[in-house]
Automatic annotation (TrEMBL):
Transmembrane segments: 14-35, 47-66, 96-116, 122-145, 166-186, 217-235, 247-266, 286-305
One annotated GO molecular function: branched-chain amino acid transmembrane transporter activity
Protein name as annotated: Branched-chain amino acid ABC transporter permease
Intracellular or extracellular location(s): Cell membrane
Pfam families, A to Z: BPD_transp_2
Coiled coil: none
InterPro entries: ABC_transp_permease, LivM-like
Native species: Ideonella livida
């Protein structure tokens, strides 16, 4: 219609309120060491690691369309790089955390040349094989404990309270950086290109998008996030072993978190991580029955809530805490 003007809207009242509530949550969370118990901080650090790892898997598979079951390769690599820098090179383990993330991202570059030769299900299995290669390689390095693993000794001179507080604050900063980084990336031109590749790589390439380059970039970013989560987890745990670091359960839990929360949505890993933490807290003592319950819940969600719990809410009421789309408004 002549005379009409259009405005590109990229936020909503709900998203603006989310920003305010998020800032309040960060402020309250940052004060936890001053009034909370040590057990709470340990649980929050562990929760942060699961969440960051799941967020990276969601970026890789939910937005990039690359379903990997071998992201534990970078989780374990991040943990071992942090350990080697701390125990063998004398680097402060807290400083070693971001360094480990960068190393994981750099290692992902040559790994991607191998992994991307495979497609579909072969890509998924191939990433698992790559993770096992990492596992077996590290298990045969005596300097980092070999197959039995070793302890992080670089923090022995630090008192327990200081170590726990520092680990907690670093974990909180990593969570905020992960959410903010993924959100800003998905709102950028590169983020739109990534989602176009997920929907139809052939059409995306016909529009001038370098599909291979974009996939490698996302694979590297997801590896960095996985390495960050691994380094952070083992700083808090103080002990590492190949079986614990490179176990396929890490990716299995990430897939579970993303699937029940809602794949391809920033809110999905948030909802899924909270649900997983609650289930783990109240039912983990049931052992194999607990794992069976997780599997049955995942099956139920895929049958009746194909878009996850948040996806169902979004489809029903149009809720979006982190909108990435552009809408025209008159």
């Amino acid at each position: 219609m002549q005379g009409s003007t259009f405005e590109v809207v990229r936020s909503t009242r709900l998203s603006q309120a989310t920003l305010g509530l998020g800032a309040l949550w960060v402020a309250v969370s940052a004060s936890l060491p001053f009034w909370g118990e040590a057990a709470w901080m340990r649980e929050m650090v562990e929760f942060s690691c699961y969440f960051i790892f799941a967020m990276m898997w969601n970026l890789l598979a939910g937005y990039g369309g690359m379903v990997s079951v071998g992201q534990q390769a970078f989780f374990g690599l991040g943990g071992y790089v942090m350990l080697a820098l701390g125990n063998l090179a004398g680097v402060n383990p807290f400083i070693a955390i971001p360094i480990a993330a960068v190393v994981a991202g750099l290692v992902a570059v040559p790994v991607s040349w191998v992994a991307f030769r495979l497609q579909g299900g072969y890509f998924a299995i191939g990433t698992w094989v790559i993770a096992e290669v990492f596992h077996l390689t590290v298990a045969n390095i005596p300097a980092v404990g070999g197959g039995s693993g070793t302890s992080l000794t670089a923090l022995r001179g630090l008192d327990r309270a200081t170590r726990q507080h520092a680990t907690y604050w670093i974990a909180l900063a990593c969570v905020v950086a992960c959410i903010g980084g993924v959100y800003l990336f998905l709102r950028s031109k590169q983020g739109l290109a990534l989602q176009a590749i997920r929907d139809n790589p052939v059409a995306a390439e016909s529009q001038g998008i370098d599909v291979k380059r974009m996939k490698r970039l996302v694979y590297m970013v997801a590896a960095m996030g996985g390495g960050l989560a691994g380094a952070l987890y083992f700083v808090g745990n103080l002990r590492i072993s190949p079986d614990a670091a490179f176990g396929v359960n890490w990716t299995a839990f990430a897939i579970f978190i993303v699937v029940i929360g809602g794949i391809g949505r920033i809110e999905g890993p948030m909802v899924g991580a909270v649900l997983f933490w609650l289930l783990n807290k109240f039912f983990a003592d049931y052992g194999t029955w607990y794992q069976l319950g997780l599997g049955l819940l995942a099956v139920a969600v895929t049958l009746w809530f194909k878009q996850g719990f948040w996806g169902a809410l979004q489809a029903r009421w149009g809720l979006s805490l982190f909108p990435t789309q552009r809408r025209l408004q008159t």
